[in-house]
Amino acid sequence: MSQHKRVSSRQVSSRRSFLKQTVGSAGIAAAGGGLVPYFLTASRAAAATASGDRPLIGCIGLGGQGSWNMELAMKHADVVAVCDVDSNRLAEARQNAGGKADMYDDYRKLLDRKDIQAVSIATPDHWHTKIAIDAMKAGKDVYCEKPLTLTIDEGKKICQVVKETGAVFQVGTQQRSDMDQRFLQAVAIIQSGRLGKVHKVSCAIGNAESSPSIPIVAPPKELNWERWLGQAPLVEYRWQGGKDAEGAEIPYKSRGHYEFRWWYEYSGGKMTDWGAHHVDCACWALGLDKTGPNAVRVDFCEHPVPFEKGYPTLDDRYNTATSFHVVNTFDDEGVELTIRHDTDNGILFEGDKGRLFVSRGKLAGKPVEELTDNPLPADAMRKAYKGSEPVSHMQNFFDCVKNRKEPISDVFSHHRSLTNCHLANIALRLNRNLKWDPVKEAMIGDDEAQSFVAREQRKGYEITV
């Protein structure tokens, strides 16, 4: 069996069991952040309907999440092209798409297709920004998995290109739409004033993986490892798994598929993997997704390897933080946002009228209990959902491809929310507190910390806007 055919139980539990679909009608509030020339917006709308009611989509990145997104997209569009640097995943995706989709190992060839109106991107995190920007500049609308970016600077670049091109761009933070709309209901409760003034919110996202030393091995023949690395430094492939000489199972560890999220070179660990969901919903509920914190305080942090000047000193094992407690302070709003590895996974809001806890399996607190006798206004959910009837996350994207309105998870709010996670990771890597200017989006008095707002990119794979 190929090394990369293995599917982690974590993948299954964190995706399909939670991605429940909802039904409803379309309609999203107008996009913010700059005017787009009418002819560009109109031409995109015309392209979206040129082939009839079902637009044509290409899917880039076809691991567990990418395959699931493709399956959801097929309810609303025709998949005519698939792309991956792993030929096994590519062939399997083509078969799952009905056996007729064209296959590409280079996403640029897919983007050259004039008949494709939209793309789904579910590559490792470090590839998201470059592919998304290239797709928008090629005239495509984009559905891209979270976390959208690897750095704060990448988020600023994506926002810039969305404004310039008028692309419809949905970030894959499905908690805004799916999960039985539990998070949406929590947002509606809070925005209706049922908690009063919220002064604290805690996002518990669980601890992360660690590993022993992972040996260097030759990349499997089906994987183009050099292209998989993309903008990241060129390094040897590492993998272990299977069974030992006595038949005992060897724990699966890798520098590649799925496990990329435990390496700062490609992702941000649990901080961005789950933080991209919970911190996003916390900021959405409190209106913090239009600004940023003023300060970041590190109360506790553990990394699986030693760090020096913000960089791991060992390159043979996972390096993202395994446990942490970070507090981001929003001075103007009078709110403290805590991101932590411990306590029950979910979001705890604390206001002067009560507390509310929401997770993928629970919505609890006095304001929830009071709904029986004092239900929310009839339009509360619609107001929280940008004035539209809530639908599934993927349907919301394709509705917006047709009506050219802003999706429920837009890049502007996601960039601001995810900045909290990126800042927390910078503080954890340097093991010190930070001061941040949310208007200038820059560190205050800390050049070393500022250097982590962007990253070096390997020649030939640079992000250009």
TrEMBL record:
Check the record and name the Gene3D superfamilies matching this protein.
Answer: Dihydrodipicolinate Reductase, domain 2, NAD(P)-binding Rossmann-like Domain
Q: Which Pfam families match?
A: GFO_IDH_MocA (PF01408), GFO_IDH_MocA_C2 (PF19051)
Per UniProt, the keywords (alphabetical) are:
Oxidoreductase
Organism placement in taxonomy? Bacteria, Pseudomonadati, Planctomycetota, Planctomycetia, Pirellulales
Chain ranges of the Gfo/Idh/MocA-like oxidoreductase N-terminal domain: 57-172
Name of protein: Inositol 2-dehydrogenase
What would you give as a GO molecular function for this chain, any one?
Answer: nucleotide binding
Where the record annotates domain Gfo/Idh/MocA-like oxidoreductase bacterial type C-terminal, the positions are 218-462
Q: Which EC numbers does the record give?
A: 1.1.1.18
Cross-referenced PROSITE patterns:
TAT (PS51318)
Signal sequence range: none
Q: What class of enzyme is it?
A: oxidoreductase
